[in-house]
Amino acid sequence: MLDSKIPEGPIENKWLNYQIKAKLINPANKKALSIIVVGSGLSGAGSAATLAELGYHVKCFYYQDSARRAHSIAAQGGINAAKNYQHDGDSVWRMFYDTLKGGDFRSREANVYRLAELSAPLIDHFVQQGVPFAREYGGVLANRSFGGVQVQRTFYTRGQTGQQLLLAAYSQLYKMKKAKKVELFPRHEMLDLVVIDGKAKGIIARNLVTGQLKRFVADAVVLATGGYSRVFRLSTLAIGCNASAIWKAHKRGAYFAAPSFTQIHPTALPQTSEAQSKLTLMSESLRNDGRIWVPKKKGDNRNTNDIPEEERDYYLERRYPNFGNLAPRDIASRAAKERIDKGYGVGQLKNAVYLDFRHAIKQFGMHTIKDRYSNLFEMYKKITGVDAYQEPMQISPAAHFSMGGLWVDYELMTTIQGLYAIGECNFSDHGANRLGANSLLQASIDGYFILPNTINNYLANTLNEMRPTLEHPEFDNVQKEIEQQIAKLLSINGNKTVDHFHRELGKIMWQECAMSRNKQGLEKAIVQIKDLKRDFWKNVKVTGSDKEMNTELEKALRLADFIELGILMCTDALQREESCGAHFREEYQTKDGEAMRVDHRFSYVSAWEYNNGNFKLHKEQLEFEYVKPSVRSYK
Amino acid sequence: MKVTFKIWRQENAKTKGDFKSYEVYDLTKDMSFLEALDHLNELLVERDEKTIAFEYDCREGICGQCCLFINGRAHGPHSNMTTCQLHMRSFKDGETIVVEPWRATAFPVIKDLVIDRSSLDRIIEQGGYINAKTGTAPEANAILISKSIADKAMDAAACIGCGACVATCKNSSAALFTSAKINHLNSLPQGHQEASTRVLKMARQMELEGFGSCTFTGACEVECPEHISIINIAEMNVRRLKAKWFE
User: Fold this and answer.
1) What's the domain count of chain A?
2) Among A350, A366, A399, residue at a domain's last position
3) Based on the domain organization, do A489 and A610 belong to the same domain?
4) pLDDT digits (tens, 9 = 90+) for A2-39
5) Cβ neighbours of A17 (radius 10 Å)
6) B119-246, CATH topology level
7) Which residue range or ranges hold the FAD-dependent oxidoreductase 2 FAD-binding domain (chain A) (predicted)?
8) A108 included as an active-site residue
9) Which class is domain B3-111?
10) Which of B57, B159, B182 to mutate to test binding with chain A, by most A CBs within 10 Å of its CB?
11) Interval A543-556 mean pLDDT
12) In chain B, which residues have their Cβ closer than 8 Å to the Cβ of A50?
């Protein structure tokens, strides 16, 4: 039975009630406890620094050369907080409601409320750390709007909000390194989790420079390894982002929740060739001032600026007059797909729509638009060679955020005792669709505020336990498995590259398990991915050795896990016979093409247990005490 | 299009390196430079050779991990751009492209085109932060910061830590990098308390790591992907002198 450990009391008091009852550990004892944090992004670095401040001994691992490279850095638009600085009717309650509704009522009320509740102090925290948020002339903090809400609650630092928040967390991490409370392990990749007597007690990591496998023991393990949309290969994620840590944890007993809930971002740059490795995101904040349209005439080949106003179809404003260009991401992406599929797409491969700033420039002046978005326009020009001040941007939907991830309870603990998952790699607050500017928020709050106040409740019980040694037989077993897998990959010596298999996996996943899904397609995809898996383990070719820096081997190890995850994602999408948020099953839609939830059958979180290559479903029933799930309309 | 890559190959930190040439035929103008190297690596795998190690992660110009010296320039032929934002349309068909790692005493080569830039992290470690614990912050709007100061702090804070400023500098100076972080924090009221110790400690560490001195050639700001201005270095020097004399 899944126990989400929701505390008692009215929703406003639950977090307080939790903290009052949680076990505390005195400072002298904290020194004796050690915690492994995997990942140095906003949640990983934030938690590692904060746990170290509390007195624990922390080890932090990341595959990049510096903690400052983690992909939180790429978040552009902003971070939400219920400060109500704009005096526009915002409140913790309103933010709670927006987030719950934005997630199409597939997340836990208590978690979402806590997210909104802790958002305001988080802004205080980041200001204190020196984050140079945008300001008004009078010196107060500025705000802007983001998709799916009608208030202005987004704080930002130009189009580089993730960068500034991550650098704040990274610098705090180094502050604690200097204090000798944190040990950092750059260029180290966790290859497996070590579970002893049902408790997470360590990891085995590979030094990516020497290839050496190393064992690390701790009293608790925290995974902060981010999202897994690289399963689609082409995505907005960094090339190194991977699912391996959470997948290995899943295979060791952690349930995987809602794996198929993947957000497709509406405003990325379109794919132009087969060799492409990445789809660059253009911040959703651009939709504040940009208007999205396609020509009313199919295959209109005129110069963009020559198409007169009356021949442009501003389809988001037409379909969703209340939210217009600021409709939530899942809805905006599906609407773009609908137009593109019907033949109205623009650009070289007819796979894009326009995002146009000429009205905004006319209304607010070039200066204001440059002040708001100059770095995004500059980035656009570098990549495409086009000046978006003169003609509209071309944008297209791309795989982006993983709402799914390891199932966690209210304490952010997985189904393995002592194993925590924080930030994007868990399934918690976003339900079936994440609202813009809520990602930095969740990562930060998990890392800075929640985990440091819940991990003590578990660690207090381990104080009297003997910590296993690195010679424990379970470490031997796990290391042997890793060595065998690596030896196998290097010995196949087939005729296809790792990238070849990744492209194939990406095509299957994008075709059948992305914006729109159906039974037949998903069943086919599962068969195809299983075939691909067999082909991979028979015909992949990896050159070089395991005792050196070998990026091909790194890619192969990550892809092996992505392939297996792909099967689970399709299994999950197939089982959920409803449409909700980003999960759109073609069989379940209204007459005008909107998602149709089936609450009486699917008002639960799907948590999958790994069982020797098969997956067993467990259900966490969602109880809605405060908000009655309604039809999610943005019309 | 066809190009010849002349690429620095070096087995590891202890061995000597050398250039090796690779002809690549089926490239397109729309490919990014790093995608062209991906493509070359796939060809190498097919030919049973070891792939070329090079750095990248976000591939959208913000993480700062990519760092190639291309035809004698940090991040390639354009100013103010990262390697991952460079596309093959910037090269001529048939061109020979020389690709090297960044050369600086403080950036030792790890393998092929991969270098160790942990020296930059160690500069940050000396004071590139505000000493305040999680949970101790006052209300955000309690301290007003004028828009011009916030904007100025942001201009400096935008540094992505790629190290192009060091790679392009004839003295291998990290003054632009170091000054950017110092000025970001020291210009904000939250950073005032530790302003003097920050500038002294960070600048000292910069010297200890083996970075050279700044002689104001201005080469760094030409390559900086975030357009960080050389004025930051002058400001750092003033702050450092003030800290030395008065604190």
Assistant:
1) 2
2) A399
3) yes
4) 999 999 999 999 999 999 999 999 999 999 999 999 99
5) 13
6) Fumarate Reductase Iron-sulfur Protein; Chain B, domain 2 (1.10.1060)
7) 35-440
8) no
9) alpha beta
10) B57
11) 98
12) 134
CATH for A381:
3.90.700.10
Output the six-digit token pair for B188.
């904000």
> What residue spans define the domains of chain B?
3-111, 119-246
Nearest-angstrom CA–CA distance, A542 and A14: 52
Q: Is A73 on the interface with B (CB under 8 A)?
A: yes
pLDDT at A247: 98
A16 CA: distance to closest CA in chain B (Å):
15
Work out the pLDDT band at B247, boundaries 50, 70, 90.
Answer: low
Q: Which residue in this structure is represented by tokens 């660690």?
A: A459
Nearest CB neighbour to A171, from listed B46, B114, B128: B128
Q: Choose the mutation target among A80, A158, A164, A167 for the interface with B, i.e. most B CBs under 10 Å.
A: A167
Q: Which of A399, A434, A460 is the last residue of a domain?
A: A399
Active-site choice (A106, A144, A206, A329): A329
Q: What does the block give as tokens for A217?
A: 């023991």
Q: Outline where A493-518 has alpha helix (H).
A: 498-512
Per-residue pLDDT reduced to its tens digit, B149-161: 999 999 999 999 9
Apex A605 CA angle, A564 and A18, nearest 5: 115
Is the Cβ pair A275, B39 closer than 8 Å? yes
Rounded Cα gap, residues A615 and A33, in angstroms = 35
Beta strand extents in A62-210 (DSSP E only): 79-80, 154-155, 182-185, 188-196, 199-207
ipTM of the complex, rounded to two decimals: 0.98
A45 within 8 A of A170, measured Cβ to Cβ: yes
For A297-310, what is each residue's pLDDT tens digit? 998 889 999 999 99
pLDDT at residue A633, rounded to an integer:
82
Domain assignment of residue A284, given as a range:
266-399
